[in-house]
Amino acid sequence: MNQLEQMASMAIFAKIVETMSYTEAARVIGVSKSAVSKELARLEATLGVTLLKRTTRKIEITDVGRTYYEYCARMLVEMRSADAFMEKYHADPVGNLRVAAPVTFGNVVLMPALNQFATKYVNVQVELDLTDRQIDPESQNVDVAIMINRSKPEHARGKVLMEIDWGLFAAPAYLGRHPSITDPEQLSRHGFLLFRGPAHTSVVAMQKHKREVEVRARCVMRSNNSRALLSSALDGLGVAYLPRYVANEAVDDGTLVPIFPDWTFEKRFAFLMWRDDPFVAPRVLSFIQFLTDHFANTHTPSAA
């Protein structure tokens, strides 16, 4: 009898002792009475001792059987504890949640939702990695990643969180020092502050109704961080091409002015990505659902 078989026989022996009945033990375990008797006989043969004495009227536990039962009972308690742990694990979000997101999007858009999630799920410890490197949940030590792109990668599971609109913005001081901009063709005379990274561009494409314009941008500064470009725009360095969520606060307080706000610029999407795993941990599932609900209430996702 190997150890796994012996553990099964120990459980049967313990159940006989607890019920003091072969018949009741067989009913509780879900096997036949003869199977219970057979397993007990195998266990006694393996151990080389008599654990139980059975008469026509009752079952008696031997001294060695009583002591051996204590070990068997502890084993069953640990098994039940393990089962209870797994039930709780599958029912309640718990453990470390590793999240990766772009730096600016993470600070401006994600953090309010992440703070609410951490407040609600106190047994989940969030580990946030803000980076503008492309993160692949399949190959890197990340549970959930947010990627900003034109389309969802085909190799991973994911959904659209929100649509990201871009626009042109400049400080009133910059506009006051330069010729007015009344037509998109005039933009080629101006210096641009442009993103360097996944959203890298040297041509600003614009559309209004049926008119489409592509402006060859003369770049005066590039950065892989939109907030750095925002700072330069606020200092009047040039016309910044930014995601609207980065510029909205400055537009609201009048320190930036949108240029051609009724034109449509490029669109990208924030994708929530996670591993293609049939056994997704509750903390990950809860986070996916939480972000989905949060962005559905605060933003309008669109399909890419």
Automatic annotation (TrEMBL):
<keyword id="KW-0805">Transcription regulation</keyword>
<dbReference type="Pfam" id="PF03466">
    <property type="entry name" value="LysR_substrate"/>
</dbReference>
<dbReference type="InterPro" id="IPR036388">
    <property type="entry name" value="WH-like_DNA-bd_sf"/>
</dbReference>
<comment type="similarity">
    <text>Belongs to the LysR transcriptional regulatory family.</text>
</comment>
<keyword id="KW-0238">DNA-binding</keyword>
<dbReference type="InterPro" id="IPR036390">
    <property type="entry name" value="WH_DNA-bd_sf"/>
</dbReference>
<dbReference type="InterPro" id="IPR000847">
    <property type="entry name" value="LysR_HTH_N"/>
</dbReference>
<dbReference type="InterPro" id="IPR058163">
    <property type="entry name" value="LysR-type_TF_proteobact-type"/>
</dbReference>
<dbReference type="GO" id="GO:0003700">
    <property type="term" value="F:DNA-binding transcription factor activity"/>
</dbReference>
<protein>
    <submittedName>
        <fullName>LysR family transcriptional regulator</fullName>
    </submittedName>
</protein>
<dbReference type="GO" id="GO:0043565">
    <property type="term" value="F:sequence-specific DNA binding"/>
</dbReference>
<dbReference type="Pfam" id="PF00126">
    <property type="entry name" value="HTH_1"/>
</dbReference>
<feature type="domain" description="HTH lysR-type">
    <location>
        <begin position="1"/>
        <end position="62"/>
    </location>
</feature>
<dbReference type="InterPro" id="IPR005119">
    <property type="entry name" value="LysR_subst-bd"/>
</dbReference>
<dbReference type="GO" id="GO:0006351">
    <property type="term" value="P:DNA-templated transcription"/>
</dbReference>
<keyword id="KW-0804">Transcription</keyword>
